[in-house]
Amino acid sequence: MTLRNQVLVWIGLLVALILILWIFRGILLPFVVGIALAYLLNPLVNQLQKWHFSRTWATVVVLICVLTIVISVFFMFVPLVGQQIVGLIQRLPRYVADLQKLVTEWSPEVNDWLGPERAAQLQTTLNDLARQALGFIATLPGELVNIGLTGASVLGFTLLAPVIAFYMLVDWEGMVRGVDSLLPKRHKGEIKTILQDIDNSMAGVIRGQGSVLLLDAAFYATALSLVGLNFGLVIGLLAGFLSFIPFVGAVFGFGLSMGIAIVQFWPNGWMVALVAGIFLFWQFIEGNILYPKLVGSSININPVWMMFALLALGAVFGFVGLLLAVPMAAIASVLVRYGVRKYKESPLYLGTVRSGPDRDVSPR
């Protein structure tokens, strides 16, 4: 098979995969969650196997432990978080009104500092942001229904995802051997190298970045609650869990926290500065310690490409697309880097393309 035909075959397989995902997007959620859970827990199952557990019993033990932890956390925190979410939605219009009132009271000082024209622009910007925030909250329930995050779908993937994860974990080694047996023998080594790069990138996405996300949520929720910020728990959790979108989690949490802190603590500027310091401190820790240690260089994706993948796949596949966006972007990044490397090794790039049977037109 010529190189051209090989490329066409791989492109055809990719198009077929995308079409299948689009057709079955309505039922993919439990499978995506189950496969991700199996991938995340596979190292633990492998470790138990080294301690002379059978594969089945190792899977049962790991899943029971994980489900026990998840259910315990659910019953401990979900009622409190639910109350705070409802309270925040109810109080947010009042917070916006209070913040606008404070800005009005500061108008003489702001006019002297910025000038009348810039002060008016600031007031208009704040009003626009307030309207957008309130509009987003008002339409949030409808948006959750549109992307498929309804009570029935949540219940469905909650019940099915552990079952899918169990069967995936039990048969993981068999699936790996099956894929390995299907690889073309001539290119087997090169394909396995690419698959290893994809595995490293996926480990960075699911295990490394997932760990960073959980640490972000735990720190923000704890720190904001300890300083006494109203609804600090839910704001911290949202800021942490939105961290999988570059900059969005920190910007969202910082903006919402500062708005509430100004209304709640003013004129105590030290408390407002303390809330700001929580985000600045943790962003330094995340960027200089957590990301290099837990993720490293396994995810080499430009933030702009990451945001494009989230928006594009979210628009096409809904909530499932948001879950698939980061792993798919990581896989695409590995394949693009491989393609660039092969191109730089090719005669086309090196300038040794032959125009005839015996004619070399490479530059002298």
Draw up the topology in text.
Blueprint: H1 3-23, H2 29-50, H3 55-105, H4 107-114, H5 116-146, H6 151-170, H7 172-182, H8 188-226, H9 232-241, H10 248-265, H11 269-295, H12 303-317, H13 319-345, H14 347-350
What does this entry look like structurally?
Helix content is 84%, strand content 0%. It is mainly α and 364 residues long. Among the domains are: 195-299, no CATH class; 300-347.
Largest sheet descriptor: none
Beta-strand segment tally:
0
Structural class, by secondary structure, is mainly alpha
Run of helices and strands: HHHHHHHHHHHHHH
* Gyration radius, rounded: 26 Å
Helix count from the secondary structure assignment: 14
Form type: globular
Mean pLDDT, to the nearest integer, reads 77
Detail the poorly predicted runs. Answer: none
Helix content: over 70%
Classify the beta-strand content into a percent band. Answer: under 5%
Our measurement of the CA-to-CA distance between the termini, rounded to an integer number of angstroms, reads: 33 Å
